[in-house]
Amino acid sequence: MDRGRDGDRHRDGDRDDVVRFWERLGLPGIIDVHTHFMPERVLRKVWAYFDSAGPLTGMEWPITYRHDEDERLALLRSFGVLRFTSMLYPHKAGMAAWLNEWAAGFAARVPDCLHTATFFPEEGVDRYVRQAVEDGARVFKSHLQVGAYDANDPLLEPVWGLLAEAGVPVVMHCGSGPAPGKYTGPEPVGRLLSRHPRLRLVVAHMGMPEYAEFLALTSAYPEVRLDTTMAFTDFTEEFTPFPVAERGRLADLGDRILLGTDFPNIPYPYAHQLHALERLGLGDDWLRAVCHENASALFG
């Protein structure tokens, strides 16, 4: 078998499947608020962690789009992804400012990427976050599981105030899936929001597995949103199924749910995330809002 041609056929089929999805909805394309681009050596370490079935995953997790950066960008564009992010995050102090420098350069040379930044509770965090906002950062990533920090750390208090005032969204991995962390779960996030109710928080992965609790926080705080990353897919439904009883709340909050996928670090084709949303049966208007309109309104 010609492996190169076989791979091309798979990519063509994947692309056609995605394009058919948004064309049927009458959209100009889709907006994906949860994609990963980061320095190559950092990404290779992330992939190695997935390959080893590390303690934060604990399961086999093949990377479907294990390609170099240029090919990953070409794939997203061929899918009709109009805007995407470069989600990146530190696992220790001393990394975030350097990651932000890289991300600013990436956004400058990749104009369809929303300029993404990150932070860690450390001395000087308010200074480099303010600098990132002044440099044009459109979205931040906070990973409470990997970073193993409390969103309520006093060092972060000026950061939350700054981001709330600036209206810059923060995509936060705060749910306890796929493995709980010391500071994950809805309770610490609820305390954060009680102090900063205008914070534009985007709860990654629909808050899995605490779906109901994060849906309740979204209902309580008008600036809170959720992203769909990996939720509702066959892969996730096997170990963290979304409760059927909460389907109605998905419809009620249809203006505050955003498409996210985790590209390229997903163990299935990109189109599967879209079809997983479609089979929820919430209608074409809901899909249009989730896959394009909500993010377009949030990011202008």
From TrEMBL:
The keyword Lyase is annotated on this UniProt entry: yes
Keyword entries, A-Z: Lyase
Pfam family, one: Amidohydro_2
Taxonomic superkingdom: Bacteria
InterPro entries in UniProt: ACMSD (IPR032465), Amidohydro-rel (IPR006680), Metal_Hydrolase (IPR032466)
Residues in Amidohydrolase-related domain copies: 31-300
Name of the protein described by the UniProt record: Amidohydrolase family protein
